[in-house]
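Per your request, structure below.
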């Protein structure tokens, strides 16, 4: 049984991961799920599902505990899995009611949430889970620092799909959006402070445009209104405001939320993926799925080396990692890819190979191995 708030129709990397987690479990077990309102449309692998309104959060948690506990007692699952640390208390309590084992997948933010109540109540339940899966080495280090036993933890990076690439899609994307032959920097993801776009626009983009005045920054993604961290909106206006002040607003295109076909075409049409993510107090980048997705399209990334991003980028093969705050170097690395198309082409196969090594079937195999290993070892 999977219990999670992070599931479609909500948007984001955690939501996408949990859909694949549910599919992974279906390969071995009959599965049930407690999730957000509207999840049934996307949870095709679930034999039984309970939907709960995501807000207010307190109501969602109380109803999740009620439904998860009842489902656990009725269905007697072998495993009850929390899609994030937020659901760890509910999963642990439900497991003790039904004799199941408890597991949790941690993403980074759910380890370092600044709330005193969260640290007091949620972290003890995370420590008690039978299996703790973490999305990166950085998240594992955070969990160890919070007292999660190392013997119960295993690192399983999120996966990615491996799309069929078609150069014609890239050409059509450029034509459709009137981009011509301009060098394209691509940013993908929900607009939050942690993504660092406002700082990139202020501190790196002007220097890039001095060298390549025809370059454009494409921004794909909407405000993170449903996110527990960094939600509420307003980030787009902040980016536009600092862009106007820096005199670079004309070099930024906001495309909003795009469907998968448009997103794949944007990856293929771009010269480099920029990921100037920041390490903020109480808000970390646990992995950086978008950098892995860029690699799956043969696109190198330039990112700050924070959080778990180093698990998503292999320096010199799939992109560049830069010390956080070094915007001159960040800009220089971006210019490497926009100014040398032959370099990007030479890295394309390395990007694809790296993505294949972390494809969703690999994720599935690793998750099932982690759970089966626990059963075989007899730890409970």
């Amino acid at each position: 049984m999977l219990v999670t708030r992070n599931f479609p129709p909500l948007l984001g990397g955690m939501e996408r991961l949990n859909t694949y987690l549910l599919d992974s479990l279906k390969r071995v077990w009959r599965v049930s799920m407690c999730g957000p309102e509207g999840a049934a449309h996307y949870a095709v692998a679930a034999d039984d599902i309970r939907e709960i309104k995501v807000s207010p959060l307190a109501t969602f948690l109380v109803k999740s505990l009620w439904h998860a506990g009842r489902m656990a007692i009725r269905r007697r699952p072998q495993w009850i899995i929390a899609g994030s640390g937020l659901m760890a208390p509910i999963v642990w309590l439900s497991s003790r009611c039904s004799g199941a084992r408890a597991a949790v997948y941690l993403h980074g933010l759910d380890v370092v949430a600044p709330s005193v109540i969260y640290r007091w109540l949620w972290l003890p339940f995370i420590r008690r889970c039978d299996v703790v899966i973490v999305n990166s080495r950085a998240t594992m280090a955070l969990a160890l620092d919070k007292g999660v036993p190392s013997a119960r933890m295993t690192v399983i990076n999120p996966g990615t799909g491996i799309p069929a690439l078609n150069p014609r899609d890239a050409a059509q994307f450029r034509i459709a959006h009137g981009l011509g032959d301009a060098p394209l920097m691509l940013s993908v993801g929900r607009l939050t402070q942690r993504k660092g776009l406002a700082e990139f626009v202020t501190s790196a983009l002007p220097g890039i445009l001095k060298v390549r005045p025809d370059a454009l920054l494409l921004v794909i993604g909407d405000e993170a209104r449903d996110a527990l961290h960094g939600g509420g909106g307003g980030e787009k206006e902040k980016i536009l405001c600092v862009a106007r002040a820096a005199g670079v607003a004309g070099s930024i295109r906001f495309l909003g939320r795009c469907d998968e076909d448009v997103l794949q075409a944007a990856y293929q049409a771009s010269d480099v993926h920029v990921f100037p993510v920041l390490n903020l107090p109480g808000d970390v980048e646990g992995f950086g799925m978008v950098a892995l997705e860029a690699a799956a399209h043969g696109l190198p990334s330039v990112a700050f080396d924070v959080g778990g991003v180093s698990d998503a980028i292999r320096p010199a093969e799939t992109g560049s990692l830069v010390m956080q705050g070094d915007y001159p170097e960040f800009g220089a690395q971006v210019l490497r890819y926009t100014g040398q198309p032959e370099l990007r082409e030479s890295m394309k196969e390395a990007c694809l190979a790296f993505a294949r090594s972390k494809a969703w079937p690999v994720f599935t195999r690793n998750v099932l191995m982690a759970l089966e290993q626990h059963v075989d070892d007899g730890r409970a």
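The longest strand covers residues 101-106.

Regards,
D.
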